[in-house]
Amino acid sequence: MTHIIKMNKTVLYLLLLVLLISCKAQNKEIKLLSNNLYKDDKGNIIFRIRDLEGLKEEKGMTVKNDSLNFSHVYDSKTNTYIKNNEVIDWETFDNIFNDPKNVEKTKEKQNGITFYCYFSDKNNTYLYPFLSTRLLLIKGNDYEVLGGAYLKVNNEIYWKAKKLKSVDIETFKTVQLVNTADYHELSIGSDKDHLYGGNEIMSYKEFKDRYRTDEELERKYFKK
């Protein structure tokens, strides 16, 4: 009987130890870096974004409720994942749209700037492609907000973290067109040869169907 009591006490102590460890793990420190952007004591980046349903977890990223949790960033140049703490400078890391001058350049405040998840620190730029499982690392922080979701980084242009291909960097700029669906102004891209809807060259059908008539742009790009 005494032996059974001792065993029960041992089991109880083990259960209490497991419980304490579990509680300690669940109560890890979460630090607010800036609006809607957090990090925990292990260097994970946590931020909320809409429409996460169906998003599958991958290396370096987990989904919990309405939040994304990144433990790694992805370097597409080397096809490798790097732990956040090995590359991010936490003292200067922030969402670039927390800078008022960057918000002003978007001209689309009614659509919710936090949707564009672009980050930077003193060394690098980090882009989150919408409904992706990776936080992209772009080495260097020479970036410029061009308008809407268009961002120039190191002589490349991105739209919602998707790179524009065959774009003329020197003549690229953004212009505003009125969307016929809700009559809001949207930023599209343009260079000397093309208009861009998102990161793709815009077709004449898309131009006519989606946007209110702009005769000057129609003559320049589609009636040559």
Question: Could you walk me through the main structural features you see in this protein, from its secondary elements to its overall organization?
Answer:
23% of the residues lie in helices and 33% in strands. It is of the alpha+beta class. It folds into 2 domains: 28-142, no CATH class; 164-223, no CATH class. The relative contact order is 0.09.
Sheet-strand content, in percent, reads 25-35%
Order of helices and strands: HEEEEEEEHEHEEEEEEEEEEEHH
Cross-sheet strand order for the largest sheet? 7-6-11-10-9-8
The biggest sheet amounts to:
6 strands, mixed
Estimate the global geometry from the Cα principal axes.
elongated
Ranges where pLDDT stays below 50 over 5 or more residues in a row are 2-7, 16-25
The whole-number mean of residue pLDDT values reads 81
Give the number of helices: 5
Number of strands: 19
Number of domains: 2
- What's the gyration radius in Å? 23 Å
Report the end-to-end length measured between terminal Cα atoms: 97 Å
The percentage helix is 10-25%
Helix and strand content put the structural class at alpha+beta
Protein name: DKNYY family protein
Organism: Flavobacterium hercynium
